[in-house]
Amino acid sequence: MKNCTRNVRWSVVMLAISLVASAQETSKLSFKFTTLNVKGSQETDIYGIGNSGAVVGSYTDKNGIEHGLMLARGKATNIDDPNGTGGTFCYNINASGAIVGYYLNSSGAAQGFLYKGGKFSEVGPAGTGSYALGINSKGVITGYYYDSSGLEHGYVLQGKTYTTLDVPSATGSGAWGINDKGLISLFWFDSSGSYAGALYDGKKYTTIKVPGATQSIAHSINNNGDVVFAWVDSGGNYHGALRMGGKYYKFNDPKGSSNTRPDGINDQRTVAGRFLATGKSTYQGFSATY
Question: The pTM is what?
């Protein structure tokens, strides 16, 4: 397909603040945050980060149009699927620079995609909508889709073969991330409709949950097996958490203490995501080293 990319101006605001995280049953861990915004945009959302430090996501321009986004080496580039008349959203990037995400067509339906070598190709099992969320260095892709009856299922795509991933007892499942060992991080819904997290090693599912959370949404996983979460407290507020070495470390962007949503993690001790600053109604992106 036609390469529909163009460069955009980028404004990066350094936030020289280290936040000491606290979590049950953990030691202390410090995070140093950097705020990421597309200059002139209404909103910037960051969803993934690669080992090179490149981040991907989306932004809303001044006309309200959603564009897929990559920021690498200080240069921002639009990643717009030509079929994405309703917007393009980039969710992860691997070591080779391949990007996965989804676009919305003119009917508002979601379709997963792979952007590789300057070309777009569609990704996702047949159904009423599909999303591509994770990709490892081997090109294996994870995501989720809705079947014809509207049920949500996770999937992994290896080569041309799709395998459905359903967490046992879940009312819906989605596969977010995959590392080079094939370990997959998933989010799923319990019988009450609340989010929970799981790991899948190809044979069994293991539930993972942030201590004290009412809901734990497992997002990306790196090659060390570390998982980044968005979790919800009893007041309905979103926060970040890192599961590293079997322990959990909670954190917030200092500007978004009640609405921090990390999505990406790499092997270089960096997480990335978005936050809603106090008094604001639109998101900004962030990266944070630890």
Answer: 0.91
Scored b (16 or more CB within 10 A) or e, 226-254 reads bbbbbbbeeeeebbbbbbbeeebbbbbbb
Asked whether residue 199 is domain-assigned, the answer is yes
User: Does the pLDDT at position 11 exceed 70?
Assistant: no
Best mean pLDDT range from 26-30, 75-79, 139-143, 253-257: 139-143
Indicate the length of the chain as a whole number: 290
- How many domains in the chain? 1
Residue 226 lies in a domain: yes
Query: Which residue bears the tokens 């030509």?
Result: 82
Torsions phi, psi of 27, nearest 5? -85, 175
pLDDT at 3 over 90: no
Question: Can you tell me the distance from the alpha carbon of 92 to that of 101, in angstroms, rounded to the nearest whole number?
Answer: 7
Asked if residues 17 and 31 have their Cβ atoms less than 8 Å apart, the reply is no
